[in-house]
Each structure stands twice: as structure tokens, then as C-alpha cells.
Design goal:
There is one protein chain. The protein has 273 residues and is an alpha/beta fold. The protein folds into three domains: 156 residues, Rossmann fold, CATH 3.40.50; 57 residues, no CATH class; 32 residues, no CATH class. Helix content is 43%, strand content 22%. It contains eleven helices and ten strands. The strands form two sheets. It has a six-stranded mixed beta sheet, with helices on both faces. Strand 7, helix 6 and strand 8 form a beta-alpha-beta unit. It is globular. It binds adenosine-5'-triphosphate (ATP) and magnesium ion.
């Protein structure tokens, strides 16, 4: 069994009002893997990742990072664990008043790096994300894909062990999405950083992830290898998301219930033409 870098155990989250946002969610994320989380809007994906580094305190359950329970950590220890878990978002969340270089320097300065060493490290990271020539530019002048590259450079600045990506490519066009995915793959391979990808884009999961968890109404309803889940989804939620198969299967079920064969329907269509 590979090592679990992040273990969620019985995670439950309730906000003041409404249904549970997470209900008894348990799974392991293995060191070095790229793990996907899919589920329709409101299923609890963002709440789940925010609970994984305690940005959001779970109402019940536990998260273990490298075997250590987050709830038992001192503030300082939790802060250090968070430095080991980078995050990127759909809206990039860059500091608009700072240059690209200074955005990447920011977490290093907070971590106590000297200005000059931080600048040197940030410059190396900008080279990694192929943005060296934009070091002195402000984020407002960058494209969406370039902004996400800065966010990635910033997220890996402190040398995290894991990177959580919440809809990181959802605001980007398909070509830019491919660029960002290949950058994430590169980071995973070169530095062995474990990556957790939340997305509603099934192609992202297919192209990037080894395993995937399917969420529905605050629960993980299915988990497994991407190929397995995509070719033979077991849950209704997975079938609905993996829509090409899902649509065909749903049509067949509908026809079956109504005592109509697919041949009859297709025959009907062909006659109409
Ligand atoms: N801060 C909050 N206060 C109250 N309810 C919240 C809060 N954050 C999330 N929720 C609720 O928790 C549930 C799960 O939300 P969450 O944002 O995790 O879903 P999601 O799967 O990320 O959806 P999407 O795909 O739209 O991003 C929703 O019903 C949402 O309204
Ligand atoms: Mg979300």
C-alpha cells in the first residue's frame, strides 16, 4: 500500500443553515499521485479541499497530513503544515498592487526569507512557469493563463508537498487549459508534489489524474482509478457526470422502462429522414 500523504477520516461539515456540506467523507491521497474530485455544483468539493488544510474547520472527523492529525497541531505546527500544502483557485487571487515577481516573493517573505534570497528564488520559479519576462509586470496586464502561472509559482514557492487546485482551469480557454495542465503534470513529475484537482471538466480529470473521487450531496459516492470510473461508473452521480456514456445509458434505461428498443427509436429516426 502506498503512503497516504493526506488522509480524510469521517469528515463532516455543517454550516449554520442548510444541509450538511460534507457528510462522513473518508479517503486517502497517496504521496506523489494526481487525485481528482468531481461532482455537480454544490456537491461539497470546495468545502472538502478547504477542510483538507483546515482553512475550514470540519464539524467532525479528522485530517491527517503525513500521518499527523491536524486538529491536534499547535498553531505553529498547523501553519507549517499549511506551508506544505499549496493552493490555487479559479480566480487566481493575486495581489494586484504587487508585481509578478513580488507576488511570488510574498509567501517567502512571510516565511521569513531575506528579500534578496526571496527574489532569487522567485526569479527561478518564474523561469519554471515560463514568465521570466513578466517579472516586473502587474497582474492586471496578464492573460488568465499567465495569471494562473503566477499563482502556481507562488503556490509552490515554499516547496509544498501537496498542491490543491480548486477549479484552476475553469476560467481558461481549452488551449490555455492544456498549457496549465501540462505545467501541473511537470510540477508533479519534477518535484513529486502530490496534486489534488477539483474540477467540473471531465477532460481535465481524464488527462491529468490517476484516481478520482466522485461527490454527490456532501458524500463521496465512488472512488477509483480514472479509467475504471470513466469506463464503468458505478454510481448514478458518476454516470450523470461522465455524460457521453451517461446520456446513452440514461436513454437506454428510459427506453427499457417504457418497453421500447433502441432499434425502434433509431429506425424511427431513419424513417423520418
Ligand atoms: N461558507 C458557507 N456558508 C454556508 N454554506 C456554505 C458555505 N460554503 C459552502 N456552503 C454550502 O455547502 C454546500 C457545498 O458547497 P461547495 O462550495 O463545497 O460545493 P462545490 O461542489 O464546490 O460546488 P461548485 O461546483 O459550484 O463550486 C453548498 O450547499 C453550499 O451552499
Ligand atoms: Mg466549488
Amino acid at each position: 500500500m502506498p503512503d497516504a500523504i493526506i488522509r480524510a477520516q469521517g469528515l463532516t461539515k455543517s454550516f449554520d443553515k442548510g444541509d450538511l456540506a460534507l457528510e462522513d467523507v473518508s479517503f486517502d491521497i497517496y504521496s506523489g499521485e494526481i487525485f481528482g474530485v468531481i461532482g455537480k455544483s454544490g456537491a461539497g468539493k470546495s468545502t472538502l479541499v478547504r477542510c483538507l488544510n483546515f482553512l475550514e474547520r470540519p464539524s467532525a472527523g479528522e485530517v491527517y497530513f503525513q500521518g499527523e492529525a491536524l486538529s491536534g497541531m499547535s498553531r505553529k505546527k498547523l501553519y507549517q503544515a499549511r506551508q506544505s500544502i499549496g493552493m490555487i483557485f479559479q480566480q487566481f487571487n493575486l495581489l494586484m498592487q504587487r508585481t509578478v515577481l513580488d507576488n511570488v516573493c510574498f509567501p517567502l517573505e512571510i516565511a521569513g526569507w531575506k528579500r534578496e534570497t526571496a527574489k532569487k528564488r522567485a526569479a527561478e520559479l518564474l523561469e519554471l512557469v515560463k514568465l521570466s519576462e513578466k517579472a516586473g509586470t502587474y497582474p492586471a496586464k496578464l492573460s488568465g493563463g499567465q495569471r494562473q502561472r503566477v499563482a502556481i509559482a507562488r503556490a509552490v514557492a515554499c516547496g509544498p508537498k501537496a498542491l490543491l487546485c480548486d477549479e484552476a482551469t475553469s476560467a481558461l480557454d481549452p488551449e490555455t487549459t492544456r498549457d496549465i495542465l501540462s505545467l501541473l503534470r511537470d510540477i508533479n513529475l519534477r518535484f513529486g508534489i502530490t496534486i489534488v484537482v477539483i474540477t467540473h471538466e471531465m477532460q481535465v480529470i481524464e488527462n491529468l489524474c490517476g484516481r478520482v473521487a466522485v461527490m454527490d450531496a456532501a458524500r463521496v459516492v465512488e472512488i477509483g482509478g480514472v479509467r475504471e470510473v470513466f469506463s464503468r461508473p458505478k454510481s448514478e452521480a458518476a454516470r450523470a457526470l461522465i455524460n457521453t456514456d451517461g446520456e446513452a445509458a440514461a436513454l437506454l434505461r428510459f427506453l427499457g422502462k417504457n418497453g421500447v428498443s433502441i432499434e425502434e427509436v433509431l429506425g424511427h429516426v431513419w424513417h423520418d429522414n
